[in-house]
């Protein structure tokens, strides 16, 4: 795949993932319309905790977390649209207008009183962050600290046979990087094109779908199947 086509593909995926992660009530302000998102309206909602369906101020409760966007700011306070009829009031904090923030509701009155928090402060799953690490497989293989790299391939080892070793490695890792092939090429073919030895470059090459019964598995299907197995292994660990 030419570099131009690779960049277009990675940008498209990043645009769609960013759109889906953003709560619906923030998309119009945070996500500019572009050709890559012309069919984004047909994407199903995530229904994750940071995508609340409650849109009324009276339904807010103390201790609730909300994603929001700063709509007004001064030295005395910032107002943040959190997806209800009245913005949250954050005292003594001046924030850039248009900035996306995570807010914890700490009081309720005429307005909601909010406190700025980070995603790491939230006790439940609070969405993902999209980051493009490069356009080549070799870019992805620049290992970060405490990162476990798992390549997926029908030519890899059966995940069921590696489950115990995989569980131990996941326990020792802070990050997991999962690699998937392209619609037209598997990871072995991509690695060969870049003069890489796939098995020497990653920690595991695993076949996540035993007896798949088809010549290929669509990438979006492989992602769901792989995440389900990794989640199960992580829970066991």
Gross geometry? elongated
CATH superfamily of the largest domain: SPOUT methyltransferase, trefoil knot domain
Give me the CATH architecture of the largest domain, please.
3-Layer(aba) Sandwich
The CATH class of the largest domain is Alpha Beta
Strand content: 15-25%
Poorly predicted runs are: none
CATH topology category name of the largest domain: Alpha/beta knot
Helix content: 25-40%
Q: By helix and strand content, what is the structural category?
A: alpha/beta
The side-by-side strand order for the widest beta sheet comes to: 1-2-3-5-4
Specify the biggest β-sheet.
5 strands, mixed, barrel
Give the H and E element order.
Answer: HHEEEEEHEHEHHEH
What's the number of structural domains? 3
CA-based gyration radius:
21 Å
Distance between the termini: 38 Å
Tell me, rounded to a whole number, the average pLDDT: 91
> What is the β-strand count?
8
- Helix count equals 7
């Amino acid at each position: 795949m030419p570099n131009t086509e690779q960049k277009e593909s990675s940008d498209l995926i990043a645009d769609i993932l960013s759109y889906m992660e953003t709560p619906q009530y923030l998309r119009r302000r945070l996500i500019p319309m572009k050709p890559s998102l012309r069919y984004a309206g047909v994407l199903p909602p995530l229904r994750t905790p940071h995508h609340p369906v409650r849109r009324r101020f009276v339904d807010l409760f103390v201790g609730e977390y909300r994603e929001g966007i700063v709509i007004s700011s001064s030295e005395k306070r910032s107002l943040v649209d959190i997806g209800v009829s009245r913005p949250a009031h954050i005292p003594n904090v001046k924030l850039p207008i248009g900035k996306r923030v995570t807010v914890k509701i700490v009081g309720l009155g005429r307005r909601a009183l909010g406190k700025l928090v980070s995603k790491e402060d939230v006790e439940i799953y609070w969405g993902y962050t999209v980051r493009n690490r490069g356009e080549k497989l070799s870019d992805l293989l620049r290992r970060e600290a405490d990162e476990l790299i798992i390549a997926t391939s029908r030519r890899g080892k059966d995940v069921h046979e590696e489950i115990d070793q995989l569980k131990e490695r996941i326990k020792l890792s802070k990050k997991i990087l999962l690699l998937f092939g392209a619609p037209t090429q598997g990871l072995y073919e991509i690695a060969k094109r870049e003069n890489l030895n796939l098995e020497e470059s990653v920690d595991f090459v695993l076949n996540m779908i035993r007896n798949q019964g088809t010549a290929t598995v669509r990438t979006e299907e492989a992602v769901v199947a792989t995440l389900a197995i990794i989640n199960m292994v992580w829970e066991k660990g």
